[in-house]
Amino acid sequence: MITTLSIENYALIEKLSIDFSKGLSIITGETGAGKSILLGALGLVLGKRADLSSLKNKSEKCIIEAHFQISDYNLQPFFTANDLDYEDQTIIRREILPSGKSRAFINDTPVNLQELQDLSLYLIDIHSQHQTQELSDEDFQFQIIDSIANNQELLEKYSASFKLFKNQKSDLLDLNSQMQLALKEQDYNAFLLEELLQAKLESSNQEELELILEKLSNVEAIKENVEKALSIASDEQFGVLQNLKEIKNSLQKTTGFSSEYQSLFDRVNSVVIELDDIVNELNQVVENLINDPEQLEIVTQKLQLIYSLQKKHQVLSVQELLQIQNDLDTKVVAVSTLENQIIILENQIQQSVIALDSISNLIHSNRKKAIPTLTQKLIAILEQLGMPNVRFNIEVNATLNYFQNGKDELQFLFSANKGSDFGLLKKVASGGELSRIMLAVKAILAQYSKLPTIIFDEIDTGVSGEIAIKMGDIMKEMSKSMQVFAITHLPQIAAKGNSHFKVFKTTLQEMTHSELKLLSAEERVIEIAQMLSGTVVSESALIHAKALLD
């Protein structure tokens, strides 16, 4: 439950600190006095978005702090899961800086807004006037039934399985799209791959083949020039080799006279040896130079195939062709891989369907069992609230479709009067009837939830008199097991509170301020009398106010 709320520099509130207690707390005040400001401030503490317009003084920061007594609500797991320090008296603080930035703290640990919002689900239910329209929302109607059916744990399991199922279906859709694309390209890719494999590129050295082609294409010219070189070098009378040998013999005769001559002899001798070796190699070249048209044709065709493939795939080397070959092989193999992946995923989806069906069947069964209990409780409360002929027609029907909260479709119909047909709440229920039904729903839900606090913001819209007294009685009964706040304009409800707060405006130095005050017993009599008769309090209004309080 909330024990303290402190507000500083927010909207029309300069500085405010108020303590709250158990039971039913009433908040009253004239229209525009600032009741909505209190709810706005509390909303900020619970994680709602804020902006600079929230600041009363734009040059100073706004601070809103709320203390919650949570020892009885088993919230330790939430604090552990979010790495927060647990305290029985937990303090939530929200700061809005003049720059527009916002900071939030739980027990002095900085947190983000999502963590505040998650924690608020365990702390307070703020029922504003527009939320009465939620009664016509199917999701809210399911929440009512599921609370009574105690389906929370099953719904969590279903939600996890449903998320997995949707992801699997999405993955299967992607795989099938990939498969369709792969199948379209499969034949062409297989053709290209076979073409490259037939070329046997692994054993191809393009530069070497180009050299061989050049040699085979010019074998006659090469042979002619090599033979001419041999003739010049090795002619027995006038050949270069014969002349070098004569030079060598002549110099050999001078080697004994000087080391200089010996050096010249050695150098000439080296040339003779080198030239002799060259002549031998040239002889081998001539012997090996054969005009081979068949080999020339083979090399020409091999190179033409390589050039053709390079042009086709727009590359310049055999290595690039080999990389394309590997890529094509991967794509061709990928089709069979995709087929296997699709089969595996389809089996997983089938298992998910079995799990979803099993959980949703349990959810459906629990809902069916809960509906008579819900109907009985709603009618019992609404009869007290002046709706003696109210009837509900609530049915849950299992479908083949998977929704966020199971496989059921819901029919939640209502009739307020004898002889009238059932209809949708939003079409056949008046504002006052909707307010009473919502109060009945909240009263029932309070029996099944462990929520510490609920705030009713003018849930009494459209009712008065004896019905208002009954609504107050119901809120009073709810307050025995939880902290209840009621923002009201009706004296019949205001008189039911254990404590009574008044919101009012003051003007100081031409500045308007909203303030909140806990009323004493005497002040409370006057406040309720004013609610009965207006600003001028009559004696009869005072008597009536005391009677209501008694």
How would you characterize this protein structure?
The structure is a single chain. The protein is built from 17 helices and 15 strands. It is an alpha/beta fold. Among the domains are: 1-123 and 451-519, 3-Layer(aba) Sandwich (Rossmann fold), CATH 3.40.50.300; 181-335, no CATH class. The longest helix is centred in the middle third of the chain and has 67 residues, at 318-384. The chain is elongated. It holds the Pfam family SMC_N. InterPro entries: DNA_recomb/repair_RecN, P-loop_NTPase, RecF/RecN/SMC_N. May be involved in recombinational repair of damaged DNA.
User: Would you identify the regions where 5 or more consecutive residues have pLDDT less than 50?
Assistant: none
Specify the CATH homologous superfamily of the domain at 1-123 and 451-519.
P-loop containing nucleotide triphosphate hydrolases
Task: Assign an overall shape.
Answer: elongated
Report on the biggest sheet. 6 strands, antiparallel
Question: How many angstroms does the end-to-end distance come to?
Answer: 27 Å
Q: What's the pLDDT, averaged over the residues?
A: 86
Strand order of the largest sheet: 2-1-4-5-6-7
Secondary structure blueprint with pairings:
Layout: E1 2-10, E2 13-19, E3 24-28, H1 35-45, E4 62-69, H2 76-81, E5 89-96, E6 102-106, E7 109-111, H3 113-120, E8 124-127, H4 138-149, H5 152-198, H6 206-217, H7 219-234, H8 240-252, H9 259-288, H10 293-313, H11 318-384, E9 391-403, E10 406-415, E11 423-424, H12 425-428, H13 431-448, E12 453-457, H14 465-478, E13 483-487, H15 491-494, E14 499-508, E15 511-518, H16 521-533, H17 539-549
Parallel strand pairs: 3-13, 3-14, 8-12, 12-13
Antiparallel strand pairs: 1-2, 1-4, 4-5, 5-6, 6-7, 9-10, 10-11, 14-15
Helix pairs in contact: 4-11, 5-11, 6-10, 7-9, 8-9, 10-11, 11-13, 13-14, 16-17
